[in-house]
Amino acid sequence: MAGRLELDKLTDGLYRATVGTLFEHQEICRTRDLEALVRQAAAMAGCRSFDDVVGAIRAMRTLG
Questions:
Q1: How many domains is the chain built from?
Q2: Residue 37, domain extent
Q3: Which H, E and C letters describe the chain, residue by residue?
C-alpha cells in the first residue's frame, strides 16, 4: 500500500507535511516556507526508488 503525503496550514501560520497510510500518519516537518515545502513534495512525487524517497524525506525534515 502506497503512502500519501498531505500538506496543510496550521492555525499558527506554519505549514505541516504528514505522510501516512490507511492506519497511521507521521508528521515529517513544520515550516513557514510553503514554496520550499511544495518543492520537496514535488521531488517526492518524482521518486523512483525507496532510497529516493528516504532522501526526499530527509531533505524535507531540514526545512523546519
A1: 1
A2: 4-61
A3: CCCEEEEEECCCCCEEEEEECCCCEEEEEEECCHHHHHHHHHHHHCCCCHHHHHHHHHHHHCCC
